[in-house]
Structure formats: structure tokens, C-alpha cells
Amino acid sequence: MHIGNIDLGEKPVLLAPMEDVTDPSFRLICREQGADMVYTEFVSADALIRNINATTRKLSINTGERPAAIQIYGKEVAPMVEAALIAETAGPEVLDINFGCPVKKVASKGAGSGMLRNIPLLLEITRAIVDAVKIPVTVKTRLGWDCSSKIIVDLAEQLQDCGIQALTIHGRTRSQMYTGEADWTLIGEVKNNPRMKIPIIGNGDITTPEKLAEYYDRYGVDAVMVGRASIGAPWIFKEMKYYLQHGEAIEPIPAVEKLALLRRQIKESIDRIDEYRGILHIRRHLAATPLFKGIPNFRETRIAMLKANSFDELDAILNRIEKDILT
Predict the structure, then answer these.
(1) Residue 288 belongs to what domain range?
(2) pTM for the full model?
(3) Residues with catalytic annotation?
(4) Are 284 and 197 in a shared domain?
(5) Are residues 317 and 198 located together in one domain of the fold?
């Protein structure tokens, strides 16, 4: 699959953009584990043009992450174009526009999936950004605002006409948030529309290598994007890529190897921010990781792990886990 001149290979698996998750360390680890392209956390256009430090830091891309996409969101044409031009100077391979974020603080202000209630403006923003930047522009969106307005089949054609070079579709409406099961039938309908010429990327509920392969075959998409299943489990990309290539499961990855990746995330999170905030940031991965699931009588250890406020305290807990449970 190609996005512009970027060759992502056959049946690529992409790391979805996720706020407070897809920081540089996590993106790099996911690339090393087999993700074919990674996306930054989504970047507020308004904050970017105001030069807010916490936002501008999100533009940093390390060499090992590439190819990488920067994703921006906003609700007005001029700020979105200005933010796109700023993002382009950071050197991403792709600029992605977020028309899919469902969270209230974004959508209720008309940005993210809130744009699905103002299609003329959504298209105007898209056209303006495509015209303004020289790198490939892509869009990530949802099926529609709610179950009565699943407009993605028509919208996909309109976005293609704006000049985007790939479209990612999350198989839920905004009103669903992340509840229920992602519906890929309309994603497949977009892909099978003979008028669509750009790559279609499917997203939503891809949690296992087997489901990934099944959905590739069933819906014929050009790429699949993996989000929540990777939190605390960057090795899922290695498992998925192996299954796609060999048609069978990879040999189980040793638990100590998985724990080493989580330890690396902790250290790099602390190095990037500071000890206290770096540990706060990484707790989401520690809380979500499947590595500790099924361990008997683990509740107290888990609570202690998620309450640790220093590297030494957290490291000591992980040492005990490795010594007493995982080996």
C-alpha cells in the first residue's frame, strides 16, 4: 500500500494516534515491534499556533519512528491551515486530519468528530490543507455522528475529491464513543465502492492477530490501524505481523521480554518529562497491559504498582513481579 510515494508494504498494520499514549518512546517501540507507520498524539491547531510548549513538543519525531504522521485537529479553516504548515516543518511523512475524536471537550466544540455535523466546513478545511502543504494529507473519521446519520460512504467520495491520499475509518459513530462493537460493514462498503481510488484504512476492535487477518480478508481494506489493543502491549505488532506473514501464531514472546519493554517505556517517559509526571504518564500502560492478567492474588501488587510515585519504588515492585511471578 502506498500513501503518496510512501510504500508501506503489503497489508500494513498502523499504530493509531492516541492522546497521552502515542508519545515518542511508545511510537519507536511499536515501530521496532513491527508497526508499519505510527501517528503522534493529536495536536490542537489552536494550541500549536499559540506556540504552547506542551503542544509543540508533540511534533518531535525521531529517525527510528519513520514513517510517521502528525495528526492535527481544529474547527476553523485559517488556524487549521496555519497549524498544518507548522506541522509540515517538523518533517512528518504524512499530515493527518482528525475528524473522529469523540471526547466531549473536543467534539462539543465542533472539532474532531464534531465536524461530522458540519460537512461543508469539514470539506473546506480539508481542501485548504491539501492545497497548503506539500506532503500527503490523510483523514481519520467515523461512520457519522449517530446511528441515524451514517454518512461515511458519501463522505469518503467527497474527501477523496478534496485531494486526500488515504482515509482511515473507525467503525463507530461519535455517539457510540468507544462502546459496543465496531461495525466494519460500512468500511467494507467504502472500500468496495468502485469510485474510491485512495487507500482505505480500517480501525476499531482489532485486538488479536487472528481478527486482524480475518478482517483483512473479509473487508478488503488496504491497511488496518490498531489502537487500544496496543496500550501496554507494543509487542502485539510483532504477533500480528508474524501471523499475517506465516498464517500461524508466533512462538510465545517470553514474559520477561515483554516486561523489559514496559521498563524501557517507564525509563524513557521519566527521561522525557520528569520522574513524577513520567510515572503518572506511564500508569495507563501499566494498568492496561495484559502481561499481568490471570496472575493469582495480584490485586494488591497491582494497586501498589499503580500508586508508586518514584522510579525506585516502581522498579522494586517490577523486580518482585519478575522474580516471583514471571519466571
Answers:
(1) 255-326
(2) 0.95
(3) 101
(4) no
(5) no
